[in-house]
Amino acid sequence: MSIDGFESEVHAWGRRLAAQLPRAGRNPAALAERRMMQAMIGDPRLRAALFRFVDVRPACRDRAELVRHLHEYLEEAAIGSDGSGTARRLSSLVGRRALELPTASAAALGVAQMSHRFIAGEDAAAAASELTSLWQQGRCVTLDLLGEATLTEAEGRVYAARCADTLRELARASAEWQRNPLLEDDGLGPLPRANLSVKVSALTPHLRANAPARALEAARDQLLALLRLARDSGAHLHIDMESLDTRASITELVLELLSAPEFETGPSAGIVLQGYLTDSEEELERLLGWLREQPRATPFTIRLVKGAYWDHEVVMAAQHGWESPVFTDRRSCDRHYEHLTRRLLDARAEGLALRPAIASHNLRSLAHALAYSDHLGLAPEAIELQVLRGLGDDTAAAITAAGRRVRVYCPVGDLVAGMAYLVRRLLENTSNDSFLAAQTTGAELELLLEKP
Amino acid sequence: MSTQNSFRNEPLLEFRREAVRAQVLRALDELRAKLPLRIAGSGAGELVSTNPANPAEVVAIAADSSRADADAAVERANAGFAAWSALAAGERATVLQRAAGLMRERRQELAALAVLEAGKPWAEADGDVCEAIDFLEYYAAGAIALEQGRPLVQLPGERNTLRYFPRGVCAVIAPWNFPLAIPTGMVSAALATGNSVVFKPAEQTPACGHAVVEALHAAGVPSDALQLLTGRDEPAKALVAHAKVQMIAFTGSVAAGLSIIRTAAEQAPGQQHIKRVIAEMGGKNCVIVDADADLDDAVPAIIKSAFGFAGQKCSAASRVLVHRDIADALNERLAGAVETLRVGPAEEFASDLSAVIDAEAQERIGAFLGGAGVEPRASAAVPAGGGHYVAPALFVDLPGDSRIVNEEVFGPVLSSERVESVEAAVALIESGAYGLTGGLFSRSPSTIDMVSRRGIVGNLYVNREITGAMVGRQPFGGGRMSGTGPKAGGPDYLLQFVEARSVSENTVRHGLVI
């Protein structure tokens, strides 16, 4: 097929998905939220103020503290604000005594509601009905346990125990789900219903950017125990990627453990590839090289993401005088993402025991992946798409309606623990480069589907 | 000064990349093969520096200079002053920039030297090299700007100018904890502004001191305009007392600093000027943690500030003042984090804490710990063998009159106290003698503003670690008993090394302005 021909396939998939997106505007809450998002995109100071409020909210002891913080953030945002003036209006509103308590209550409630959109529940048990309902709607899930940073051995042990409980709870709850072939077999073998994403940085306080070997020693036993539990309970264990500081530790640890003979026939496991890293192709080649040589009979999942630590990576590099490890231009980043998508799907088509999972909220990136998968002649179930709960709900519905498999990444945990996650998601959602932001502000579909 | 916006710090080595780690480890092997280094110099006796992690390993053998050696060095420097000060600032700057280039070329080797001789962990040792390079570049550019003088009010019939002049011989007395950066900073500031220098490095780190001088000489600083004087106390005391020393740039302990200021105030026979002393001294640095702080950020930052380089920085955190509402949570997490620290040789990337500088320091810190009367709330194991290791220690809720709470320990010891409010914490800091660095963890803009405006310390760090000041970004230095407040690496630093002279010329002749 010619390049133009393939492009038209991508656009066709894009239009097909777009046509299935639920219509916004009917639901007043969704409309209000969209307005709020538009205000935030248009006024960076207001955006900053609200982020800071969301961030501090769990640390406020009482309503008075809430009011004080909210007022201070809005006041800063109002000074010299050249945006919509929303910050100024809100600031004067919060400043009025009579309005203070109701405003704070509303703001607190707002944060709580917002967090419920992103966070499925306190724990796996609390989220079980939500997961069941997603499955009934034709979507599978992976759970992510939110938590405070692990700074002590005890905190690492608590996280590991939560992971173990979650694996058991997921196995128990998912046993009753109705059979759904698209979600349970991808042509390489059965796909576990129970699927947990874990963070190595939460398992151990010994991650050191300059000494990857330390985390290897420290997290080996914890991760080993979880892999055994996943194997014995028939669950999938996915190891998340974090900032570049920890990539070497995590990759080495995962590949080393999975190479052990005891894991030859399970569990199903996977790792994450971050497309925004300029050297992620080398990283992918390393993973594929390992996959070609390792004796595992169980397929390995590679989840391709754009990457969620963009600001962190850019700031760290600038402060230390390093070359940025991430693409700083959106189009190059999107182009690279598509390139990696094709490399993953090519590898699958070659017959490697590889399960490509394309995680994105960018309609173009998803359409490109589906079009390329079709172009290679892969079966519909061979490719998996992934989205985040709260951000990609509409996209997930569209993918399901188009008859493809989508996995929803569902964080669980309490509000305090979830704050870092929530703030990162919000930043992502309203940043200038955000696809969702472009969608919110009503960009033309053809523009959104343009080749990067 | 136009240097402020164009200056960029020397990039740190990216140790998170394996190839970069391998490169410095090779440099370490190469350096090790050359040990012990022999440093030529005047002085009959020998001064031996050793690896703090393995005192049996001799790093360098240098001259142990005497009073007579110091006197001779001052005479030579005095003779060398005329030619060096006669150069234009731009010419001197070129020499300093060349020295920066030479250090850049040898940066792995220099970092390895700081690892072995000062027991500095890699990231800190590399930071030391980069800071040395930064000082050379920053002060070179600053001196060019300073040579322009400052604008004055001009009225018809007169021409007013203000220019800065070097002082003469500057004695630089440097510490071992930043064995490359601090001497390079003091020496290059003096040289950039046209002074000549006699530099006395700490007795623990003569090879690092020599490396600085070597780079400057190779770059073109005449040998009599800059002289190295290795040794113990005797030559340093002789320098301070010498009639022809115009100024003393010192970084070190409060006791030594006050003694220098006292001696410098005495007029030596034949002395025709008042000596100026620039002193950077100790600190008892506090981190305030407000009730709304994010402990996920505060705990690692406090741990790094208190235990990085085993607490042997004048900027290191030694007291936590935490709001009572979150004190238990913070202390619990701090204790757990201290227990994860790994003590080991600086040359191993996996070490969080290195050995302290020498046996004397080990004993001194041990006495603090022994005198506490209670066991620390948290600690970590130290390796066996002969290294000068001290286990990290966290104390919680010690009595207010405890030595650990009040005195500078200069070791891996941290104490945590509860306070009623941020205001109470600020008052506690104000009631103490020191004012070097301080930290604040708060998410309230008004609290941050309040503490900033109080000006309690020379360097306040908000929601981050309190060490690691960067040249041009965080000018460093404190007031009160912490020093004379010159702010190294800042736009005003060079003014300490010069004297201003103004000239006013009458431009009216025969009633006409010409």
Largest sheet of chain B: 7 strands, mixed
* Distance N to C terminus of chain A: 20 Å
What percent strand of chain A? 5-15%
Strand content of chain B: 15-25%
Report low-confidence residues of chain A grouped into runs of 5 or more: none
* Principal-axis shape of chain B: globular
Helix/strand/pairing category of chain B: alpha/beta
Look at the helices and sheets of chain A and give the structural class: alpha/beta
Q: Strand sequence of the main sheet of chain A, in spatial order?
A: 1-2-3-4-5-6-7-8
Largest sheet of chain A: 8 strands, parallel, barrel
Total strands of chain B: 21
What oligomeric state do these chains adopt?
Answer: heterodimer
Count of strand segments of chain A: 8
Helicity level of chain B: 40-55%
Per DSSP, the total helix count of chain A is: 20
Low-pLDDT parts of chain B are none
Number of helices of chain B: 16
Outline of chain A: globular
Strands side by side in the biggest sheet of chain B: 12-13-14-11-10-16-17
For the largest interface in this structure, which chains are involved and how many residues does each contribute?
A-B, 36 and 36 residues
Helix-strand sequence of chain A: HHHHHHHEHHEHHEHEHEHHEHEHEHHH
